[in-house]
Write a structure and sequence with these properties.
The chain is mostly beta strands. 13% of the residues lie in helices and 47% in strands. The strands form 4 sheets. The chain has an 18-stranded antiparallel barrel.
């Protein structure tokens, strides 16, 4: 059955709804604080598995944190309380509607704000100035780049029926070697658009969507980001590695379970391409969360009603539609049973057959990640330690039909590692007061041959070899310091030492690189 996107949007506009709550952007600093509070047992919510969160969800979580902290003041340090106070100020509008006693004197800053009865609009200016220095064996001559990003954010509501959000940013890069007119790009197979003007390289990005919401149902239409699962360094099914996409989303959240679905319009040089996804999350115990879901990539035709239906099992639908699409299945688990610790795992099945070896047959394609966050380890306040391991088997995300490869533009929709690779990641972070944060990290990345758009099966036979043959190895050691000079004005300095073996999958080629980045970012 064929359905036109315009007809779907008109149908959504016709739905009667009562409220709205806009998403909190994925780069918002407060996500890290909320995960620490979850590890410390200060709130119980399924919301962090389906990001971005909406503003009402965050306000509800802040209310629960504040209530539990009042009952047991020793659970939050002075630094935690100051960060919580800043978060409450950022969500003052939502808190004022539910728990006005939590609204602090200092609230979120805006360039302009308009309110007339139930109608409201806020405008923020966003800016980022970055200086990037890359030196070493991989950079001959050395790189010295400047990136300047300017943008604006508009969000608001009209009455109690319609919420709207728009975020447009443009980044100017100078210092790219040999940048010229030939590098201008509007070919989606080579990534997001790039325009060239003399020595200047411009890249732009935009989000824009509308929201309709009732207490039991939320519907969104427009261009946005999406990031599912419990992982921090990345995820496996839908991740922020994917560029923003036009989508229609439906979600329903209750105390002990949540359901979410999305239909995305992807960008491909081969024509129309879509992704449908849905997930359900359950609070099995107060400290134990379980989730499961499906995705399917399809294209070369119009929208399929079976995939637009949020309750349809895609595995069955794919069979009835000719068994020609790229259907996947995933599971995730998150546990906070240990005091101060959050343990989590995700398992992703791209393809599977029980008639062949689960570990050797190329058609059994899977990925998994597991991790732990330890907040205030051994009683050290304001310290958090994280360990995360990810493994993506060969040929995951690939497909025999090029239109169904698990990509949007040229980016993998799932884990940024891509197939035939793994990563072990360790991060230690220490918060010195509300404004100053120190981080140290170490990561080992191993990457074998193959990418989603180059290999869908072995060149010979049917046996896969994880990290077989030539393997590139990266050892990354980094430090980062960030200071909030004043509210929503951040300065950061980061340095990474990179030790590469078989760099670029060239046998015997080694490199030792020094990567430094200075950044000034504001949102006002």
């Amino acid at each position: 059955m064929k359905t036109r996107p315009l007809s779907l949007l008109l149908l959504l506009f016709a739905l009667p709804v009562l409220g709205q709550s806009l998403h909190v952007p994925l780069d918002y600093w407060g996500y890290g604080f909320l995960e620490r509070m979850e590890a410390k047992g200060l709130f119980r919510s399924l919301a962090l598995l389906d990001r971005p969160l909406n503003r009402s969800q965050v306000a509800g979580i802040l209310t629960e944190i504040a209530t539990r902290a009042a009952q047991d003041p020793g659970r939050l340090s002075g630094t935690d309380l100051r960060l919580l106070d800043q978060l409450k100020g950022d969500f003052a509008d939502e808190l004022a509607a539910t728990t006005p006693t939590l609204v602090p004197p200092r609230q979120e800053l805006h360039t302009a704000r308009w309110q007339e009865g139930p109608n409201q609009a806020c405008i923020d200016l966003y800016g980022r100035i970055s200086v990037i220095s890359n030196r070493g064996d991989s950079y001959q001559p050395a790189d010295l780049l400047s990136e300047n990003t300017l943008g604006g954010i508009l969000r608001g509501r009209l009455g109690g029926t319609l919420g709207f959000y728009a975020d447009a940013r443009n980044t100017l890069t100078r210092g790219e070697k040999n940048a010229g007119d030939k590098d201008e790009n509007f070919d989606v197979s080579k990534g997001s658009p790039v325009t060239i003007s003399g020595p200047n390289v411009f890249r732009d990005r935009a989000l824009a969507y509308f929201v309709w919401e009732k207490p039991w149902l939320r519907i969104q239409a427009g261009r946005d980001e999406i990031d599912w699962g419990p992982g921090f360094h990345s995820g496996l099914a839908l991740t922020r590695n994917m560029p923003p996409a036009d989508m229609i989303r439906l979600s329903s959240h209750f105390r002990r379970f949540a359901f979410s679905s999305a239909h995305l319009f992807l960008r491909s040089p081969l024509g129309a391409k879509y992704l449908a996804a849905h997930r359900i999350d359950l609070l099995l115990l107060p400290q134990l969360q379980f989730g499961a879901g499906e995705t399917v990539v399809y294209g070369g035709r119009d929208i399929e009603m079976d995939y637009l239906n949020p309750l349809m099992l895609y595995h069955i639908a794919e069979h009835h539609l000719g068994d020609r699409d790229n259907n996947t299945l995933f599971f995730n688990l998150s546990c906070t049973l240990l005091p101060g610790a959050r343990l989590y795992a995700e398992y992703f099945i791209d393809d599977m057959t029980s008639t062949e070896s689960l570990t050797r047959y190329f058609g059994n394609k899977f990925a998994f990640l597991t991790g732990a966050l330890w907040s205030d380890p051994l009683g050290v306040k304001n310290l958090d330690l994280r360990l995360e391991y990810s493994r993506v088997e060969p040929f995951v995300y690939a497909h025999h039909d090029s239109i169904n490869i698990y990509t949007n533009y040229d980016k993998v929709i799932g884990h940024w590692l891509g197939p035939n690779s793994d990563s072990a990641y360790l991060l230690a972070g220490y918060q010195l007061g509300r404004d100053l944060r120190l981080e140290a990290s170490f990561e080992r990345i191993r990457k074998g041959e193959g990418a989603p758009d180059t290999q869908a099966r072995p060149a010979h036979g049917t046996v896969k070899h994880f990290l077989g043959g030539l393997v590139e190895k990266k050892y990354l050691t980094g430090v980062r310091i960030q200071d909030q000079v004043r509210r929503d004005l951040f300065v950061s300095l980061a340095y990474t030492y990179a030790d590469l073996r078989n760099a670029g999958l060239v046998s015997g080629r080694s490199a030792a690189d020094h990567l430094a980045r200075f950044e000034l970012a504001y949102n006002y």
